[in-house]
Fold:
Amino acid sequence: MTKNPEDYTSKDLATDQDVRWCPGCGDYSILKQMQGTLAEAGVAVEDTVFVSGIGCSSRFPYYMNTYGIHSIHGRATAMASGLKAARQDLSVWVITGDGDSLSIGGNHLIHLLRRNFDVNVVLFNNEIYGLTKGQYSPTSPKGQVTKSTPMGSLDHPFNPGALVMGAGSTFVARSMDRDPKHMREILKAASDHKGTSFIEVYQNCHVFNDGAFGVYTDKDSKAMTTIFLKDGEPLVFAGEEKGIRLNGMKPELVSLSDYSKEDLWIHDSSDRYKALMLTEFFDDQSKEDALPRPFGIIYQEDRFRYEEAMQDQIDKAVEVKGEGDLDALIRGGHTWSV
Amino acid sequence: MTKTTEKKRDVVILFAGDSGDGMQLTGSLFSNTSAEYGNDISTFPNFPAEIRAPQGTVAGVSGFKLQFASVDIFTAGDEVDVLVSMNAAALKANLSQLKRGGTIIANTSGFDKKNLRLAKYGDAESPLLDDSLEEYRVIEIDISKMTKEALVDSGLGAKEIERCKNMFVLGFLYWMYNRKLENTEVFIKNKFAKKQQIMDANIKALKAGYYFGDTNETFTSRYEVESASLPEGEYRSIMGNQATALGLIVAAKKAGLDLFYGSYPITPASDILHELARHKNYGVKTFQAEDEIAAVCASIGASFGGAFGVTASSGPGIALKAEAIGLAIMFELPLLVINVQRGGPSTGLPTKTEQSDLMQAIYGRNGEAPMVVIAPHSPSDCFDTIIEAARISIEHMVPVMFLSDGYIANGSEPWKFPSADDIAAIKPKWADSEKSMTDRGYLPYKRDEKLVREWAIPGMKELQHRIGGLEKDDETGNVSYDPENHEKMVKIRQQKVDIVADFVPEIEIEQGEDSGKLLVLGWGSTYGAIMTAVRELIAEGKPVSHAHIRYLNPFPKNLGDVLDRFDKVLIPEINDRQLVHIINSKFLKGALPLSKIQGMPITSKEIREKILETLNES
Ligand code: SF4
Structure:
C-alpha cells in the first residue's frame, strides 16, 4: 500500500539492502539523519531521486527507498543537472565525496552551482580516498602521509566553502557526522532551499583517516575549535567565553571579558561579503589564535533556478510562436513544387 | 555578335574566395535559385580551418562547390566546370579541381601584387599573365572595380561597397546560366529589410553583374541546364545537420517524449544545437553543458527522468563520452549519441570530413559494451535515419550511435519532404505501478521477448529502484558480483543489440544485378559518389552492383548472403579500411579496400577507376 508522505517514518525511507560501510564509518550517521529528515519532509519517495558518483559515500542511493542513480566517478552533479532540467517536479539529492566532486568531478560541481539547479548536494568530506584504500584527496592537508604520498602530500588543499562561494553557490553550509541534531537541521534547511544547496559534512573515515576532524568533533576540543552559526546571533564560542568581532575588514578573536555580545559580529547568512569571509575561517587549529571553524548555514541567497528559466523560455516561445506544428517544422521557410 | 545558348546535362561550379568574400552565401543562393528552377542539386562547402586566417592567403580560402543538373545527381561533383576565383589564393588552392578546358572567372583586382605575394606566387608572376592557364578558358573581370562603379551613388562607404562584389559575381553567373534574379532579390529584401541602402546596393550589384554579361561583347555563349525530372511533389532544400535536428524533434513528438539535447560546442556538430535551440516552441530543451562528459551525463539523467536524452559531438568529444555511454548501456535506457565525424585522430582536421570513427562507434568503450550503430547516407537521409535511430533507442531501451560526417552535415540537397502523419509513432515501453509489480516486488531488469526492460521513471508509485554502473543482478538489478551472473548479463546486453536486426529492413541492392562479379559496398557519405560511378558503369555494360549499409551494428541479417552472391566486394571508405576489417573478420570475405584519407570525399571518378581496375584483374 502506498503511504502518505505525512505518515512516513525513517523505515519508509530505508531499503532491504545490507549497508556495507566499514563499522564505525561516519556515513552511517549521515544515512540515519537523511532518512529521518526525509521522513519529515513531506515529499513522496517516488518523487525523490538520489544521485551519486563513485566512492564510499556514493553507495548511499542503494540504501534510500527512493529512485536512485549510482553513476560514474565525478559525474553525479552533471547527471542531476539533466534530470532536474527534464523534471522540475522532482526532489533531487546528490551524494558525493571530496575525491568525487572536488577532484575528478570538480568541473561539474562548479557549473551546477552557478546554474543553481534546485538540487541538494551533500559532500561527505573525509580528506581521503577510502574506496581505493587510502590515497590523499584534494582536501587532505599538505604533508599528509598516505599510501600514495609516503613522504607527505605536496598539494595545497581545497577550501570547499570558499570554492563553492566563488562558483556562485546560493546555499553553503557545513555540518559533521558526530552532531546528528545539527546535521538534521542543516539537511532540513537544504531541502527547503530553492536552488543548489551545498552541504559539506565532516565525515570520519574510520579506516584510512581516523580522527581527521577529531579536533572539531571531540568533546574536549570542540568548544574551542568550532562556532555554530545562527542568523541574528553573535559569533560566540568556547562556552560563551570567546567571540569574533569585525575590526574594520578583519575578523578578530576577542574575549567576552573585554567585549560585550553587542560588539560582536552578528551572523547574517544573506550577507555575501561576510559569508566570503566566514569561508576563509580555515585555520589549522594547532596555530595560535586560530579562528574557529564555522558550522551551520554560512550563506543563503534566492536566485533564479536554471530549470525554471529554461521552462520560462519554452513557455515564452510557445506564447510568441504558438505551439510547434510538425508539418510547419518539416516544410521550413521556402519550398517549391515539381 | 549573336549570343548562343548551349545545353548542358550537369555543371559543377566552385565559388572560391577569401573567407570574408561571402562565397558560402553566394553558393547557397545560386543553389536555391537552381533548385527552384527544377534542377537536382548537391552542394559541398569547404571552410578554412581558421576562423580568420590571414586575408589573401591560401589558408584563408573558403569554397562552396555545387553541382546542378537536368538528371538526378548524388554528389556535388568531382571535377569543376567553372571556378570562380575572387583572388589569387582562391585560384591556387582550387585549380587542381578544375576540369581541363574548364572556365576560370578571375577577379583581376584580386591578382594584384599584394595578393600574388600573399598567395605565394613568385614576384610579378601572375598566372593570368603567363601561359600557365593555357588549357583553360579564363574570363577576367575586374569585379571589385565594376562593383565600385555600379555603386558609386549608393551612399555607402568603400568597405560596404567592396562587400557587395559577391552579388556582382552571382549576377554574372545567373546570366551565364540563364537564371532569373527574383529568388535572390527576395532573399536580399528580407535579409536587409531594415537597411534600405545596403538592400538597394546588393540588388544593384546583382543586376550589374547580370547586365554586364548581357551587354559585354566578349561573352558569346550562355548555357542551359534544363530542369531534372525529379519525382513530383513539394521540395525544400535541406542540410544534413538541419535534417538531423528536425528529425530529433519529430521523433520525440512521435514518441510523446520531451526532447533533451545536451551538447558541448564542437565542429562540425554545433549546428544541430543551433538549429534545435531555435525551436523551443516544440518543447525542446537544449543544454549547452560545461564539457562533453557533462553533456552526455545530463542527457542520461534526463532519460532516467523520462525524457528522450540526446547528445552530440564529433570524434574527440565522443572519446570523452565513452565511459558514460558504457553506463547508459548498463542502465538500458534510451540515449541517442550523434557523432558528426571529422578528420582525426586527436583534434585532427576539424573542418574536414572523414569516416574514421566507425571502429570507435562499434568497439570504442571499456568492457563488453555493445551499442547499435546507424549511419545516414546523404543530407536529407539524416532525417529518416535519425528517426530510425530514435525508434530503436526508445523501443529497445538501448543507446544508439548515429554516425554522420562533415560532408553530410554541411552538404545540402533538395528534399521531397514527408508529411508528419506519414511518420509512424514510436512506442516507449512504460512500466506501470500496478501491472509491473510481481510477487517479488518490482523488478527493474525484468525483460520481454525482445529482452527489453520497462521504463519506470520517478513519479511512478511503488516502482522506486536504483540503477548503477556496478554489474547488476538479472531481473532485480541489485549489485551483483556473482561470476555466472556477470557472464549472463554481458551476453544479454549483446543479444539486446543483436535482436535489433530482427526489426530493421534487410539490405537491398541499390543498383545492378543481385549477384555477379563485383559488389561495391558502402556506408555513410560515400553513397553519392558510389551511386554516380556505378550508374555510369552499368550504362556502359559493366558487371557491377551497389549496396549501402545503413545498419552498421548489428548488420542487416541478410548481409552475409548478399556478399556471398558476388565474386568480389569493394569497399570505398574515407578511412584506412575500417569497414573492410570488420566485414572480413565477420564474413571471411576478402573484401577489397578503396581508402582515401585526405579529409575530402572520395570522388566518383576515383571509384570508377577502382571498379574498372578490379574488374580487369579478374
Ligand atoms: S573506507 Fe572509510 S569512508 Fe569508506 S566505508 Fe570505510 S570507513 Fe567509511
